[in-house]
Amino acid sequence: MKNILIPFDFSEVSKNALDYAVKFADKDPLINLFLLNITEEGADVNAIRENFKKIIKKYKKPLSPEIYTLVQTGELVSSIIQLQKELKVDIIMMGTRGANLEEENVATTTSRLVQEADLPVLVIPEKYKKFRLESIILSLGNEKIADRSPLYVLLDVSRKHKAQVHVLTIQQQEMAMGYSEDDESNETTLNYFLEMFYSHHTFHESEDIEAGILNYIKKNDMDMLAIMPKTHLPGDEASPGRLTRLLTLHSNVPLLVLD
């Protein structure tokens, strides 16, 4: 993981995401942070660049990551797709204000980006001010993991911070005794790809999958939630992404969407 892209609009939400990203990359001289500001035609670009200088000045410390700034006009997702190729972006880190639990149909910029971007996105809630990365919960379904490649990103994050990965499966129906063939296959995959950082796999029963995940995070004081929205889908069928959108809006800890 070398290049991190951070959409930045000078709001407290984006400043919080930058602060998290700097701490995430701390003491790793190979990591570059790219701050991207999307502005309107005719905006004062020089003023934006001056504001950027003020923002990044506080992070000019020994062994801190290099921070580069980009100012562009256009649409956010298309700009990111273009920059992903030019800069070889490995992951996007983006802040979010979230939404109330009742606002299920709210579509924020962050939730749209998570759905449309074809690379990993780490979403940092506005109210998440601390930085601690010792334990990660990976939420999986019951089906066999079809695409294992996103696990490499999770391994990179775990290895960098020596974080243990707890795997959680929420089942809406009564749980059967023993592991199925798919469960056994997933255990083999997790042990192989996550190496020593794989802790254990927990199965819980809950009619509401989102509530089951969020309750587990709170009860076990987890530091990050990871999901793999497309790994359980046969072929190239697109996911409606409802659970991904809800977790983007409601998670109280950083959410790593592995794509």
Automatic annotation (TrEMBL):
Pfam families per UniProt: Usp
Family annotation (CDD domains): USP-like
Domain of life: Bacteria
UniProt record similarity statement: Belongs to the universal stress protein A family.
Protein name: Universal stress protein
PANTHER family for this protein: STRESS RESPONSE PROTEIN NHAX (PTHR46268), UNIVERSAL STRESS PROTEIN UP12 (PTHR46268:SF6)
Domain (UspA): residue spans on this chain: 1-125
Residues passing through the membrane, by range: none
InterPro entries found in the cross-reference section: Universal_stress_UspA, UspA
